[in-house]
Amino acid sequence: MAPSGGQALAVVWVAVLTAPYGITQGGTALLDPGVLGVSALVAVASSVLPYSLNLGALRRMPPRVFGVLTSLEPVAGAVFGLVILGQRLAWAQWLGIAAVALASVAATFLGAGQRKASRVRATGKAAQQEQAVLPAESR
Q1: Is residue 71 pLDDT above 70, yes or no?
Q2: Which residues 6+ apart lie within 8 Å of 88 measured at CB?
Q3: Long-range CB contacts (within 8 A, 24+) of 1-6
Q4: Nearest CA among 74, 5, 11 for reference residue 42
Q5: How many degrees, rounded to 5, is the angle at CA 87 between CA 84 and CA 89?
Q6: CA distance 104 to 101
Q7: Rounded distance, CA 65 to CA 72, Å?
Q8: Which of 60, 70, 57 is nearest to 104 (CA)?
Q9: Strand, coil or helix: what is 112?
């Protein structure tokens, strides 16, 4: 999947804006080609690539499934932090992550009937039927 042009441009713009500050703080060592290469790789891997993949996934799957999967990102981050970096979260932090994920799942699946009805009203034949019924109801 090709990176998003807007996101890539934003990363370049931020690099241009922050480079003078970085050079004054870190010196000319930041202009080393190896440092610049690693910096570009980190910028693409941490920003442009995930954003582009999220947009691609959103186009290919139902929004409610995407919403649930997105709400599970903090869980994945916490698990990777634990396994790879050895970071440990307090039970309250795990509880907070679980609450966010469960709230997303509940909002997605419990409110599905209301969203479905609103989509039906927006379609052609159903909208015409609803308009035919509305004047009779208002009398």
Answers
A1: yes
A2: 82
A3: 1/52, 1/53, 1/56, 2/52, 3/44, 3/48, 3/49, 3/52, 4/48, 4/51, 4/52, 4/55
A4: 11
A5: 135
A6: 5
A7: 11
A8: 70
A9: helix
Distance (Å, whole) CA 70 – CA 63: 10
- Helices then strands, each counted (H, E), the chain: 8, 0
Per-residue pLDDT of 11-64, as tens digits, reads 788 888 888 888 888 888 888 889 888 988 888 888 778 888 888 888 898 888
Residue at token pair 């954003």: 51
| Token pair of 134 as six digits | 């509305």
Which of 13-17, 98-102, 110-114 is predicted with the least confidence, judged by mean pLDDT? Answer: 110-114
Q: How many CB atoms lie within 10 A of CB 124?
A: 7
Q: Would you say residue 90 has pLDDT above 90?
A: yes
For 9-95, where are the E strands, in sequence order?
A: none
Cα–Cα distance measured from residue 56 to residue 59, given in angstroms and rounded to the nearest whole number:
5
User: Comparing C-alpha atoms, which of 61, 43, 38, 62 is closest to residue 3?
Assistant: 43
- Which amino acid is residue 137, in one-letter code? E
